[in-house]
Structure formats: C-alpha cells, structure tokens
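To: structure desk
From: M.T.
Subject: fold request, one chain
Message: Could you run this one when you get a chance? Sequence is below, nothing fancy, just the single chain.
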Amino acid sequence: MRIIDGHMHLADRPNGWFLRCAQERGYSAYAVLSLSCSAGFGGAINNEQCLQAKREDPRRCYFFAGLVHPCADPLAHIQTWLQRGADGVKLIETKPTVYRETGADLSSPAFEPLFDFLERSQTPILWHVGDPATFWHRDQAPDFAFANGWFYGDGGFPSLEALYGIAEAVLARHPRLKVAFAHLYFCGDDRAHAQRLLDRYPNVSLDLTPGVEMYDHFFADREGWRAFFLRYQDRIQLGTDTELGGDILGQTPLTLVLGGLGEGPVDQWGHAGLGLALPADVLDKICYRNFLAFAGEAPKPLLVRLPYI
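Reply: Done. Structure tokens follow.
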C-alpha cells in the first residue's frame, strides 16, 4: 500500500529522524508541520527546524510553515517562508490552549490579506480547529486531557462553537481556500457538521490524524461512517501526528488509522471494533493520492545553496 503521512511534527533538530521513519514505515512522502506559534515547540525556531527536515529528505518531505505571534505582517511572514521552500501553511491558533497563549483571532481583519493571498494562490492549509467536544465536560473528558492541560470546562478557554465560528467565518469570506481540517474537524460525534462543511466548500478536505475518539465513533456506527468515507473518498487524507522521537513501528497512530480503514478487528489503546473495510481504490486515495491533490505532486524544490567564492 502506498502511504503519505500528511501530518507530522518536531520540536528539535531533525537529525535524519524523519528520513529514517519514512524508510522504516515505507512512506512515499510525508509532511512536517510547524507549530511556530506555540512556545511549547520553541516558537519561531520551529519553522527553521521543519525546513531542515525537508533539506534532509527533499524528494519526500513537504514542509508547512506556521505563523508567529505577535506578527506585524502575517502575509509577508508566510510569503517569506513560501519563498524559502515551504509547501503550505499550518494553522493551530484555533486549538484552545494556543488561542489562549497567542490571543490570535484568525477571523480578525489583521489576517484578511493573508487569507486573500492564500485563496488566490491556492496555497494548501492544514488547519487544527477545536479539540474533542468531551474536553469541555469534566465527567466526559479522558484522563489524558487532564494530564496534558486540555480540559477546558473551568473557564478561560473559548467554547468549541466559538472556535468553529472563527474558521467558518474565514471560509465564508474565502470559500475557495484550499484547506484540510485536521482530526476530522473533531466531528466524529457530529457527522452532519462534517457533511455540511464538505458540501458547502468544495476545496475543503479532512485528515484522519487521531483524535483517537473519532475511531470509537467509527466503530460504533460502522455503516454510517463507511458510507461517509465512500461518498467523500476524494476529500479525506491520512495523517498520524507522529512527533520526532516517537515510536516508528509497533502500536502507533499509523496502525490505528490503517486498522480503522481496513478490514478486520481493531484493538489499540482500548479503542476496539471492526475496521471500515474500504475498497482498495478508496484506500489508495485516502492514504496516497488525495494528499498529492492537496499539496502538489512533489515537494517544492529548495533553492540551491551556492558555495561562497
């Protein structure tokens, strides 16, 4: 099976790790996404680290650059990184913790020139909006949400509806944006919302990066979700959220994704059920071809560094 992992991260120098991961997992290509807006990933330096990962594997590695905050000119910032070799843009300002950290409202006028450019240029955007709905409810949030500071029910964080409102206000003004929303837009418990989004905006797609909770919803309504995947087979792409230094083989987010799409029983990290048994041609789209349609047939060439004379 051909695989492109469209959703990976690092918070340190890559030192060949992504190249080794791709070789051992058999990836045809992969995307390293910057979280430069987050202090937890080093801030602005994360763009440089992701660009270095691309330099180490330029034929397979796509690089999506992020914003920094405060940012006097978001458009100029992103254009600079696209000129330096970025293949697209990563946005995560609408994750509750990052929204509180940066205070950046992407639907505000300050970002209009950027989104106008991204729409006109059809630059691919990988955008994280929200988190699982259960993270706002103390009696429903999983233990790992509390452990990671992702419980949002005690105030101080925007609601999930408010975060959706930011992204969808941008889409309403820029309906041709080429956007892949990460983690199925956290709509595992609200398939109708995902359907409305895909039906309204023809350039929008979704990625399947766990969000492990979405797989519980797939297993609980297997036929409904199988029909969704067949209907939108050209609008869904694979991702794993793999971070530098994580497990490359064994029980990983990749095995959960492939198990959830495939045939037979799945039992991983307590998430158990039957895979969706998608046809081989649909799997090839989701695991390989759809990312190429989104991000380009190959990573953008890097500028050749000439020796100093």
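Reply (cont.): The CA atoms of residues 136 and 277 lie 32 Å apart. Let me know if you need anything else for the meeting.
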